[in-house]
Every structure is written in C-alpha cells, then in structure tokens.
Amino acid sequence: MNGPSPSGGNLLLRQKNATTAMMKTTKHTRPAFMVRRTTIRKRMRAKLRQIKPELRKRMHDPVAQTGQWLRSVVQGHFNYYAVPGNNAGLSLFRHRVLVCWWHSIRRRSQKHRINWTRMLDLARRWLPQPAVLHPFPDARFAATHPR
Question: Could you give the CA distance from residue 81 to residue 39 in angstroms, rounded to a whole number?
C-alpha cells in the first residue's frame, strides 16, 4: 500500500514489535514532509475494552476514587502516546474514557441521572488535558548528538 493516498500524502508501512503501524507523510506550509505518528486504533480499542469492565466493577465506588484511578490510566496513556502530531488521538482517548465513565455513573441509580455538563465538570477535575509530552525526533537526536 505504498504510494500516493487519496488525501495527497504518501502512506508508509512500518513494522515494529510484530505490529504493523500506518504512518502518513503530510506536507505543511514549509516544503518539508513530516511523518505522522498516531495511535494505532486497534490498541486504543483494546485499552478501552480493558477499562469498561473495570469501570463496571468500580461503579458504586466513590466518584473521587474512580476519578483518581482514571486519571492514572489516562495519564499513563498520554505518557506513552503523547508525541507531536497525535493530539487528535489523545483527545479521542480522553473523550471515550469520559463517555465510558459517564455510562457507568448513569447506571448507578434509576432515580437521579447525571447530566453531561456535570460530567464535564468531573472531567475537568479528574482527567488530564491532552498535551504533547515528547519532542520531535530531530530535537531529541540533537540533544543526544550535538554538533
């Protein structure tokens, strides 16, 4: 599948740890190409599948306790996947975790259901905002191999 893609960039396949990852090269305003490193969808779905039953187990725990646990899960995901160009993947993971948590909290009671605005307040309190934590590869290489 190497060659031009419908969106105009070249698609490169890269194999690492027996997993095939899709990477895009895109052209910015400068005449340089950049390899886009994004979260593999299969890995994101697998992590969300692990989180859902755990949220089910923690359904009746205090919200603060579940919030602390989810903060560590989301921050751990960000620590690994927060590379330049993956902001959309980080935001999507945070949003999907928030929706899973919302469904879990809404199943706690039949009398009082939490609305989305209250859930956004909980997300601001407990879930970290996505941010790039790793530098571009050329900056990292320049730091270890100065000229």
Answer: 7
Q: Which of 45, 66, 68 is nearest to 57 (CA)?
A: 66
Domain shared by 61 and 9, yes or no:
no
Centre a 10 Å sphere on the Cβ of residue 5 and count the other Cβ atoms it contains: 12
Q: Is 32 exposed, middle or buried (0-12, 13-18, 19+ CB in 10 A)?
A: exposed
pTM of the model: 0.74
How much is the pLDDT for 139?
72
* Same domain, yes or no: 114 and 138: yes
Joined together, the tokens standing for residue 75 give 């921050």
pLDDT along the chain (147 residues), means of 10: 49 40 51 77 96 96 97 96 92 97 93 93 96 81 67
Predicted pLDDT of residue 142: 64
User: Side-chain half-sphere of 35: how many Cα atoms within 13 Å?
Assistant: 10
Q: How far is the CA of 118 from the CAs of 5, 57, 70, 124, 138, in angstroms?
A: 42, 22, 17, 10, 42
What domain range includes position 25?
1-36
* Position 78, amino acid: F
